[in-house]
Amino acid sequence: MSGASAPPVLIIPVETQVRELDAKLLLACCAVERGWRVILGSRAYVHFAMADMPRGVYLAKSMRGMSNLMFRLIRDLGHDIVAWEEEALVHPPAEIFYSVRLSPGTVPYVSHLFAWGEENRALLAGYRHMPREMPIHLTGNPRGDMLRPELRRYFDEEVAELRREHGEFVLVNTNFTDVNPFIPAVGLFVPSKIPGRPARLGQTGLGLPRDFAEGLGAHKRRLIEDFLGMVPALEKALPGVKIIVRPHPSENHGVYHDLARRCSRVAVIHRGNVVPWLLACRALVHNGCTTAVESYALGVPAVAYLKTFDPRFDVDFQGLPNSLSLEARSLEELTGRLQA
């Protein structure tokens, strides 16, 4: 139309499809209804194409130091940057969170922040390098919106298909990327190739105090062993119930496939959004997993398996999902809760 101004452009990168895509599609639809033009795609490909995109608003999922250069390039190309912190719902103590998830070189490139809730807004506002004039909007997050009752019908067909395919099942979510990464450099530590030289911090360990990282790594190694022992025990304790292990997308899934080959009713599946799996399952078993917050919002029973317990990590760090779940401090207590 002659003389009509071009619609504003919203650029939405997606890094982890199974976790982010549905929620960001919802956001894209809402934006289009309000007159925006939306460009949504793989984060890597979006970054490759930034120079060819119309100037717009780029929505970032985090503000870590590794994004400093990309943020500067995006701003130099004339785009605005707004952000939320994807990992702020379940986070370590504030000072550790700041050193890992925020960067004084990245945050100033952002013009607006969106908070999951009041606690998240206070956390972001407490960062000592946060510009005083930074607007922090209390908006919630589209991942939370996908859990609202009026939107659950979106998953009905998939829930019915999962129940037809698997029957009654318990969903076991793991989050042990720190010590079981698919890409070694993504873990807490990267082993040194030089004998005698200590391991250096990996991607998930960058910014952590070394003693905290070492303690967290030791804790996670004990936890993964607990889970590897727990899965076949659940299979025996719950006759007729399938055990589905859903590893974190950044984990090495091989260790779980090896376990499943020694069992008859254990499957390792990481497919699609976790929400329909939660709606279809009998219960969720986890340790410190954000999925338990989603489970709580959906009204699905969740049990935190805390055979190995350390308040530094199970309360101060991952306390929210554990506090929203029933606790099991032993295998016997876990099987009892799932049999009830």
Short characterization:
The protein has 340 residues and is an alpha/beta fold. The chain is built from 14 helices and 14 strands. The strands form 3 sheets. The protein has a 6-stranded parallel sheet, with helices on both faces. Strands 11-10-7-12-13-14 form a 6-stranded parallel sheet, sandwiched between helices. It has a two-stranded antiparallel sheet with strand order 8-9.
Provide key terms for this protein.
Rossmann fold, 340 residues, 14 strands, alpha/beta
Question: Can you characterise this structure?
Answer:
It is a single chain. This protein is 39% helix and 16% strand. With 340 residues, the chain is an alpha/beta fold. It has 2 domains: 9-145, Rossmann fold (3-Layer(aba) Sandwich), CATH 3.40.50; 149-339, Glycogen Phosphorylase B (Rossmann fold, 3-Layer(aba) Sandwich), CATH 3.40.50. Strands 2-1-3-4-5-6 form a 6-stranded parallel β-sheet, with helices on both faces. Strands 11-10-7-12-13-14 form a 6-stranded parallel β-sheet, with helices on both faces. Strands 8-9 form a two-stranded antiparallel ribbon. Helix 3 (68-76) links the parallel strand 3 (57-60) and strand 4. Helix 10 crosses helix 11. The longest helix is centred in the middle third of the chain and has 28 residues, at 210-237.
